[in-house]
Recover the amino acids of this structure.
């Protein structure tokens, strides 16, 4: 773009006005013309003066002001300098200008006007003329023309044209088919071939080179035949639209390729063939396109690729073509994985890609190309040996600078202007809404004052065939970079890497002064952004950010981990921008609510009378500054009052810091970049990003000290555009990071679908692909341009109305989601809470989240002072981690380390305790009578939860005992009992609204009943009490945290994380209550079904009567049951009074066991159990199954509860089937398990019988479980988990089992009146029900107070010995030397039954 005339510098004081304005254009900066743009505008204006429309009106207005002249006027038109002197406010909107000079619009208007003129002329039937002078009515048929008697192009007999200002008739001209064909054939035959030397490169395969081959006669004929032009020309191309030009040129090249029988190649045939090869690697697809005549053959494509590889080898010693000398240059290197398919996955290719960048495209200097032989399809592999790198040891940098450079406040002042812009952006979003103003990027594009930087020159470097993880490759990168610098006559060159390569590069560079002088190494901003977003995700992910993004629909559930970690760059940036807008709007609205009327009146031009964004930005600076100052004071005040407000204000601060960092890159502002990096460093230290904590401070200090170490490089790099990449020059605020540029260009072009597909593991074939990759990628990009899909000239996507609306809708969705959860800025409380689950953070989490920045800043300053400035410590020394806690740690269950701490139960440590017990005269039997842990490991998992077994094994054993118990179908007119919540949880497709969900559930249960010919269906659900024996199991399912929802109406959206929604008992209660009430107004046709549904203790009956729904309460089914397991039996008993057959449908084995145990209570009805899914679904006749059992069915409730169910533990390693087999073989225990649960209190006789059963379960016949525990240990020393529990732990387990069995045995009672579980194997702690594992200490006091010493002198006979002071002898675990504090070991007298000799 040409620069504005220097004589116009005084116009900066004049407000420009768009002289080409279109009413649809709003909120766009007015620019001043350049001489080039003014001339282009005048040329198009003269065209518009000959046409009709609003653009003609614009041109006539300018002509009336004397700025333009028409073709008939003799006086010359004004230059831009003359025009601007006449109209000082002469300017234009970019959109208005592009619309006015659009050639397509001008051509379309000409065609439209031409067709309108033709329609005015009515052809006269009396004046018909022959097409040829040789043709007559009496001519022989062989000499008659084959074409019709009208124009072959426009299909009219007559038409009028404008000739020299007059309307005249255009006569038909003669067009003989054979003569015309000969003309075209001759033109095609004589058309020149490709004149470039072999192999053609990207600069030779362009649409311009294609135009040099296509004769005008061929092009125009195709244009006439397709109706894209009616202009009768033969010597030059007819004028067509850009899209038509591309398509016509493609057809013409196909015809030339066909006429040459494939021997005359065209730019399209080569370019398209190689591009398809590059993108897919498919020989079949290339061959298919070749057979259709669109591209070269596969052999030709492979030959071209081979020649390109040979050319790369021949020119590998040269810098890339197109560079200019003595111009500041940046080299970017990155890892590239080609990922070819191998059987084992080993042997894939990992190489190093590079690009060279200069700040503007320079005139390319032609290099003499070496000759390359044509026709070869294979490439002899060339082994390029890299020079081995010999390490000189690791040495850290030392930066000569004052400690004052570390002062963070000076950099905060640099960022203040950028943060003010972001606050203005939030203010505009608040005042003008989300759907009317663009997002953050679009907003800055509209209001950017800086000129657009010129496009950068980007050149692909030859691939280094080695991974950058090796130091030899790193050394080769440095040597190659120095070589390029020498070829460009540069004293130094800038290198950009991601963190992994940066660390290795610096390891070499810091040890070699020559490399340090010639190179300046930078960390890529693109990767810094991703790592910083990972810090944000770690801090806020489990505080509610994850759930907000999913529930609002901003991020899909499958993509959330990539967003939280920052690895999905585009999604993560977009998500944080949306959150920034939404939360910023929420916080600002709370601020305005707290302003008094008098305070509001101080900002009239902002809060009361601002009609658009432009006026907001031109409002009083003092007024804006005062408002922002008041806003900052409000934030500081609320931060002190509310920890939740403070936490999420810090989120806005961190995202704003991220946006400032991105702004620095997009505006190419070096000072702002360094200031943002300085503010980011503490966060990396705070959250233990060790690599960036080590190398980002080193990078920052090197750049800060660059003016003194390398002033010339600092001068180059600190200029706008000197350290970023500009890939387009259409709109401002568009510079990108160098490491992002290589990802978008070279790496993207190198990676094709499937890696190096269609290649063997032949070394030559792989090397051909790699060597030709840079030029092949460039040709592929040129193919896009040739096809017309290049988006040059398109306005930014951020300004598209569809994008603005989409972002506005996303922001509104986040707002509604946060408001439905917990508004962090309206939550005034002393607690810090998770927004989605309402979980309160503990004191440690609150302290770490609050002090994170201060602790990170202290660690960062200490690191830079000690390791980088004063050199007191090596930079490579491990950095101490902070291990700050977040809400994720708050949700994890933890146990305090006290005197009753968990003793690690591995075998070595267990043996160690017993050694101490032996040495200090402790009875081993006594030691083993303790659980040796704070929980009973035979009954618990290592996490402290209940030990589990396969519950379904008991039902499978029952089924195996009765082969005919499984039936194929149900009898008709049965009653169907459905486990309601199990049905809801099994739904695969969740409707969008709660009303839709309610109706879907009702429709499904009715459909299931009708499918099985049932006349009654019961929807039976659980109750979810706050204090419940199932609380431990439910807490385990909801351990990730869950949000409590309130359901207000049927159109309310269902949560996207529906399973997480159901993990909260309050949510289940709310859903069941909503469905209970919603079904009363249902329009669902019940088809003569009677439907019973429950909610809480209530039950209602629904049925159709005369096409009208009748709903009535059912008091006989109102009950206090907590579990649907027992309530299903109560409903089944009620249904049995009117139905001969009752079916219970549930996936839970507990329900089957309860039903079998109560089978005798259904004497007059058949009872069926429907369970399983898919191929495992089956129907069990419970009466047949019960009759086949070898034990009384009433035993099953006691056996099931004692051997493990939802609320009780299983015995580790002891399954259900073994216990059932023991019960079958020992009838004496039948009464024991029939009696278990008969009362809520457990009597001693029943306990003694249960103890004998457990002894037999572990293969012993004794009656003491402690004795069995001792015997099992002596016979096979093993872990605590595989031993029987202690008697103390067994008593608590028996109490829990008895309580649960008592609940199940009262399934047919409406009111159980169950006592509190406290004291029945559970205990109340801090208002919550917890499992009571034991009543005794975990171990004897002498073991818990275990003392050991490490005396090196004194033989443990002096007062300093800790064992001696405690009155204890030393043991084998003491680390003392020459110990004299011991007792003679006595031989252990073991019983005859014991075989334990040594530990």
């Amino acid at each position: 773009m040409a620069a504005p005339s220097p004589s116009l510098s005084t116009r900066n004081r004049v407000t420009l006005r768009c002289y080409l304005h279109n009413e649809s254009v709003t909120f766009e900066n007015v620019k001043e013309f350049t001489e080039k743009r003014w001339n282009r505008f005048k040329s198009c204006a003269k065209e518009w003066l000959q046409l009709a429309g609003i653009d003609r009106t614009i041109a006539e207005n300018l002509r009336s002001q004397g700025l333009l002249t028409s073709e008939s006027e003799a006086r010359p038109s004004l230059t831009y300098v003359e025009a601007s002197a006449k109209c000082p406010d002469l300017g234009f909107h970019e959109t208005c200008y592009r619309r006015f000079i659009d050639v397509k619009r001008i051509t379309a208007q000409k065609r439209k006007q031409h067709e309108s003129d033709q329609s005015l002329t009515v052809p006269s039937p009396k004046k018909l003329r022959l097409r040829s002078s040789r043709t007559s009515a009496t001519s022989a048929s062989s000499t008659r023309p084959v074409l019709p008697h009208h124009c072959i192009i426009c299909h009219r007999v007559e038409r009028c044209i404008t000739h020299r200002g007059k309307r005249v008739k255009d006569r038909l001209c003669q067009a003989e088919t054979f003569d015309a064909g000969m003309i075209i054939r001759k033109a095609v035959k004589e058309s020149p071939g490709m004149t470039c030397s072999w192999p053609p490169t990207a600069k030779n395969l362009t649409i311009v080179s294609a135009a040099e081959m296509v004769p005008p006669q061929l092009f125009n004929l195709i244009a006439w035949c397709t109706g894209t032009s009616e202009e009768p020309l033969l010597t030059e191309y007819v004028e067509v639209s850009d899209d038509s030009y591309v398509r016509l040129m493609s057809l013409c090249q196909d015809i030339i390729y066909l006429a040459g029988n494939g021997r005359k190649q065209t730019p399209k045939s080569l370019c398209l063939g190689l591009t398809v090869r590059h993108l897919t690697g498919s020989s079949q697809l290339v061959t298919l396109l070749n057979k259709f005549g669109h591209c070269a053959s596969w052999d030709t494509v492979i030959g071209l690729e081979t020649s390109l590889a040979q050319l790369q080898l021949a020119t590998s010693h040269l810098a890339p073509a197109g560079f200019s000398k003595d111009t500041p240059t940046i080299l970017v290197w990155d890892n590239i994985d080609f990922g070819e398919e191998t059987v084992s996955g080993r042997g894939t290719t990992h190489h190093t890609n590079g690009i060279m960048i200069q700040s503007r495209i320079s005139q390319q200097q032609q290099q003499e190309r070496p000759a390359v032989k044509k026709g070869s399809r294979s490439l002899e592999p060339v082994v390029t040996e890299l020079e081995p790198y010999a390490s000189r040891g690791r040495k850290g940098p030392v930066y000569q600078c004052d400690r004052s450079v570390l002062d963070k406040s000076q950099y905060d002042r640099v960022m203040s202007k950028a943060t003010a812009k972001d606050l203005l952006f939030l203010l505009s979003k608040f005042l003008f809404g989300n759907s009317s103003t663009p997002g953050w990027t679009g907003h800055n594009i509209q209001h950017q004052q800086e000129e657009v930087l010129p496009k950068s020159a980007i050149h692909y470097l030859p691939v280094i065939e080695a991974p950058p993880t090796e130091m030899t490759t790193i050394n080769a990168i440095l040597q190659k970079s120095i070589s390029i610098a020498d070829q460009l006559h540069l004293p130094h060159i800038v290198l950009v890497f991601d963190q992994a390569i940066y660390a290795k590069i610096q390891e070499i560079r810091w040890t070699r002064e020559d490399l340090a002088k010639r190179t300046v190494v930078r960390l890529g901003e693109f990767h810094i952004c991703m790592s910083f977003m990972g810090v944000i995700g770690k801090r806020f992910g489990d505080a509610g950010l994850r759930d907000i993004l999913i529930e609002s629909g901003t991020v899909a559930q499958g993509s959330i981990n990539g967003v939280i970690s920052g690895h999905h760059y585009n999604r993560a940036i977009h998500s944080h921008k949306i959150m920034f807008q939404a939360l910023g709007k929420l916080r600002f609205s709370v601020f305005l609510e707290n302003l008094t009327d008098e305070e509001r009146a101080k900002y009239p031009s902002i809060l009361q009378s601002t009609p658009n964004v432009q006026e907001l930005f031109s409002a009083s600076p003092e007024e804006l500054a005062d408002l922002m100052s008041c806003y900052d004071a409000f934030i500081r005040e609320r931060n002190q009052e509310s920890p939740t407000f403070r936490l999420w204000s810090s989120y806005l601060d961190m995202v704003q810091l991220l946006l400032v960092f991105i702004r620095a890159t997009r505006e190419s502002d070096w000072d702002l970049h360094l200031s943002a990096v300085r503010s980011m460093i503490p966060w990396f230290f705070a959250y233990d990003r060790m690599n960036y904590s080590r190398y980002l401070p080193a990078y920052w200090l090197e750049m800060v000290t660059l003016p003194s170490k390398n002033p010339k490089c600092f001068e180059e790099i600190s200029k706008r555009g000197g350290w970023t990449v500009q890939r387009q020059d259409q709109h401002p605020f568009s510079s990108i990071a160098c490491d992002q540029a290589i990802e978008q260009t070279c790496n993207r072009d190198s990676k094709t679908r499937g890696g190096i597909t269609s290649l063997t593991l032949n070394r030559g074939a792989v090397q051909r692909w790699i060597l030709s990759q840079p030029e092949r990628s460039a040709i592929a990009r040129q193919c896009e341009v040739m096809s017309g899909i290049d988006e040059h000239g398109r306005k930014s996507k951020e300004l598209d109305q569809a994008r603005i609306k989409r972002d506005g809708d996303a922001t509104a969705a986040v707002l509604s989601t946060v408001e439905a959860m917990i508004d962090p800025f309206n939550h005034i409380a002393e607690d810090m809470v998770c927004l989605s689950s309402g979980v309160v953070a503990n004191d440690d989490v609150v302290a770490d989240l609050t002090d994170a920045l201060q602790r990170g800043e202290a660690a960062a300053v200490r690191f830079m002072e000690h390791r980088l400035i004063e050199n007191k410590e090596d930079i490579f020394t491990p950095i101490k981690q902070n291990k700050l806690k977040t809400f994720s740690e708050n949700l994890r269950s933890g146990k305090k380390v006290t005197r009753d701490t968990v003793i690690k139960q591995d075998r070595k440590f267990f043996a160690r305790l017993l050694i101490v017990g032996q040495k200090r005269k402790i009875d081993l039997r006594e030691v083993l009578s303790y659980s040796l842990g704070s929980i009973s490991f035979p009954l618990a998992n290592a996490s402290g939860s209940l030990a589990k077994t396969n519950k379904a094994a008991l039902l499978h054993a029952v089924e195996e005992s009765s082969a005919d118990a499984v039936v194929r179908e149900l009898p008709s007119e049965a009653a169907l009992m459905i486990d309601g919540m199990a049905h809801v949880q099994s739904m695969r497709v969740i409707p969008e609204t709660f009303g839709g969900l309610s109706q879907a559930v009702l429709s499904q249960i009715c459909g299931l009943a009708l499918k099985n010919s049932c006349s009654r269906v019961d929807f039976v659900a659980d109750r979810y009490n706050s204090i419940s024996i199932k609380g431990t199991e439910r807490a385990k399912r909801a351990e990730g945290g869950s949000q409590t929802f309130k359901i207000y109406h049927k159109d309310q959206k269902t949560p996207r994380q529906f399973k997480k929604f159901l993990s909260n008992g309050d949510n289940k209660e709310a859903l069941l209550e909503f469905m209970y009430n919603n079904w009363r107004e249902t329009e669902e046709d019940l088809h003569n079904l009677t439907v019973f549904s429950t909610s809480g203790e209530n039950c209602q009956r629904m049925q159709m009567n005369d096409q009208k729904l009748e709903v009535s309460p059912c008091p006989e089914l109102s009950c206090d049951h907590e579990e649907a397991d027992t309530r299903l039996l109560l409903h089944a008993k009620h249904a049995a009074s009117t139905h001969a057959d009752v079916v219970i449908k549930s996936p839970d084995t507990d329900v089957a066991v309860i039903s079998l145990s109560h089978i005798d209570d259904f004497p007059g009805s058949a009872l069926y159990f429907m369970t399983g899914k898919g191929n495992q679904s089956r129907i069990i006749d419970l009466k047949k199954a019960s009759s086949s059992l070898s034990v009384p069915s009433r035993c099953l409730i006691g056996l099931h509860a004692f051997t493990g169910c939802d609320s009780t533990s299983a015995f580790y390693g002891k399954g259900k089937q073994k216990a059932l087999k023991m019960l079958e073989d020992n009838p004496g225990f039948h009464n024991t398990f029939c009696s278990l649960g008969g009362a809520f209190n457990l009597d001693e006789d029943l306990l003694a019988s249960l103890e004998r059963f457990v002894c037999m379960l572990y293969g012993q016949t004794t009656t003491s479980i402690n004795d069995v525990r001792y015997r099992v240990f002596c016979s096979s020393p093993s872990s605590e988990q595989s031993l029987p529990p202690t008697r103390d732990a067994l008593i608590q387990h028996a109490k829990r089992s008895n309580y649960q069995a008592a609940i199940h045995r009262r399934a047919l009672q409406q009111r159980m009146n169950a006592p509190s579980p406290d004291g029945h194997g559970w205990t109340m702690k801090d208002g919550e029900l917890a499992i009571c594992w034991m009543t005794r200490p975990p171990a004897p006091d002498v073991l818990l107070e275990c003392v050991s010493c490490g005396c090196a002198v004194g033989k443990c006979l002096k007062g300093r010995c800790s064992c001696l002071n405690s009155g204890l002898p030393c043991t084998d675990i003491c680390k003392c030397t020459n110990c004299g504090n011991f007792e003679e070991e006595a031989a252990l007298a073991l019983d005859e039954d014991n075989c334990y000799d040594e530990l």
